Amino acid sequence: MAINYKQCPNCNSRNVVNIIYGLPTHEAMKDAEAGKFMLGGCCVEMDSPDYHCNSCGNEWTKNEAIDRAYEKINRVIATVGGYFGPSYHVEIDLEAEEVSWSKSEGEGIWQPPITKPITDAEAKTFMFNLQWADLLNWKKEYPNPGVMDGTHWQVELVREGRNIKKHGDNNYPEGWDMFCTTIKELTGREFS
Questions:
Q1: Is there a domain that residue 8 lies in?
Q2: Which domain of life is it from (predicted)?
Q3: 48 and 130 housed in the same domain
């Protein structure tokens, strides 16, 4: 998982605790005083924060942490295919607002990439769809040890901080079809 809910989006501190709502027991009050969590009161509203930073006092929701994690993505590099069939490679550069797509018919010989600009609206829709596909919560590997040939895929996220790589062999995360559809919509070309 690449979403760190307990890292402050304001100061990047990890000195963060959960905020607990409801009428606290005596034991819960002691735990709150010990700094194990923070009491948020009896009423929970739609936008009540889930986390509190002890370093700067910032508070945020789980959804804000998710949004921030996806905002850190600068580029998406994805490849899918197999030795005997076509393979596809795409690079989406969100900072330069352009996408590059190329295809190989096999044996590692790639066609020259086709590059096109993307609009701000297209980039936002793409990022929304990545969240919908739950890309950051995909496991690192999706192996299929019983199959030697077939379809292999890899996705690399170039982000602020560290890059994230995810890959698989004939095995896919739940959001894979949504991810492929999103690539096709953005590039106007095949990707699967």
A1: no
A2: Bacteria
A3: no
